[in-house]
Amino acid sequence: MKRDYYEVLGVPRSAQENDIKKAFRKLARQIHPDVNTQDPDAEAKFKEAAEAYEVLSNPETRATYDRYGHDGLKRGGFQDFSQFSFEDIIRSFFGDSLFGNGMFGFGQGGPVKGRDVSVPVEIELGEAATGVRREVEYDAVDYCEACEGSGVAPGTSRETCPACGGSGQQRKVQNTPFGQFVQQRPCRDCAGAGSIVKAPCPECHGRGAVMKHHKLAVDIPAGIADGQSIRLLEKGSVGEMGGRPGDLYIHVAVRPHEQLVRDGNDLIYHLPLTAVDAAVGAHLKVPSLSGDEELEIKPGTQPGEVKVLKGKGMPSLRGRGKGSLKVIMDVIIPHDLSAQQKKLLREFAKTTTDKNYARDEGLFEKIRAAFR
Ligand SMILES: [Zn+2]
Ligand SMILES: [Zn+2]
What is the pTM of this model? Predict the structure, then answer.
C-alpha cells in the first residue's frame, strides 16, 4: 500500500510549493541513509519522500495526483521510485558530484576483498574418469613477510596521520539545493587507517603486500567435464583493510580421447565391423578407459546397432553411478571385389531366403513376365 504523498511529507493538501520544498529538505536531512545509518529502513523511507517530493513539486503531476491519486500517475506513465536504484535517485537529486568521494560510503575505506585468480589445467579423459591430483602454480598477492604486512621498514613504526590527526576520518560540509550535508569520509592521506608510514618497508615499498608465486596440490574430482571450474575459497590474493582473500578458480580442460567421445556421462565408440563379422558373428575387443573390453557380435548385427556396456562410462560428478560405454556398429561393406568374389556373393544371394535379397529377384520376374 502506497502512503499518501502529503502524509509522507507531512504537509496539508493546500501546501504552497515552498512549504513542500521545505518539508522535503527537513525530511531528507532526518532520514538520509548516509546520515541516519542506524535505521535499516532509511533507504526505503528516503525513496518514499523523494518520490512524494518529485510528484508534488511539479504542478502537472501534482494536479494529476490530486484528481486521480496514485493510479492516475501510473496511467500517466509516472514510474514510482521503487523501480529505481537508490544511487539513481540520489544522482537525480544531487548530481554526480557527490558520488565517488565517499559521501555515501560506497566502497570507500572499508574492507576490500582480494582479487580472484584463475589457473588453467589440462587433463586426459582417463584422469577425468578417475579423478586426479595436480600441482598448480600461480601468482597472487600475499602479505609481505619482511614487514609482516605492516608496510613499515623493520625497526620503525607507523606515525599518526597529520591530515586527520589520527581519526582516519575527514569531515567536509557540502552545500546542496536542499541544505548542508555534513560529509564524513575516510581520510585520503591514510586511507582511513589514522596513521601513515614514514619509513616504508624496502621489500614491498610500504604496501605491506607483495606478489608471490604459489604452488598448490589440487584434487580434481572424478567425473569433471571439459570447461568446468573448481573454486577454492580464499586461495586468491589477500584482501585489503581486513577484507577476505579472493578465490582461486581452476579451469579444467579435458583433452579429447583418440577413440572415445564423451556424451554426458556416457562414452561413445564407433566400432569398424566387417560385413562378414556382422553377418556371421564374432568376438572382438573394444577400447574403454579401463583397458580393452571383450564384445560379442551376434550373427546378423546391423549397421548403426548400439551395444550398451553399462557402468563402463564416466562417473557422475555427484558421486552416484556411472554412465555407459555405447558401441555403435559401423559395418564396412567390402569394395574392389575380384570377379571370383563377386560370383561367390551372387551365389550366396541366390541361396539366401532373406526377403531383402529375394525382392530384386521378384522384380526381375515381374519385368520378364511383362515381356512374355
Ligand atoms: Zn613489507
Ligand atoms: Zn589520515
Answer: 0.57
Q: How far is the CA of 208 from the centre of ligand 1 (A)?
A: 5
DSSP structure class, residue 31: H
CATH architecture of 264-332: Sandwich (2.60)
Kindly report the CATH number that applies to the domain delimited by 5-94. Answer: 1.10.287.110
CA of 154 to the centre of ligand 1 (A): 8
| Cα angle 250-253-258, degrees, rounded to a multiple of 5 | 155
155: CA distance to ligand 1 center in Å? 12
Residue ranges of the domains in the chain? 5-94, 117-254, 264-332, 339-371
Strand partners of residue 308: 326
Radius of gyration of the chain (CA): 39
Whole-number Å distance between alpha carbons of 63 and 16: 13
Domain 117-254 has what CATH class? Answer: mainly beta
Residue with cell 573390453: 293
pLDDT digits (tens, 9 = 90+) for 247-281: 999 999 999 999 999 999 999 999 999 999 999 99
Across the range 353-360, mean pLDDT stands at 66
Share of the chain above pLDDT 70, in %: 83
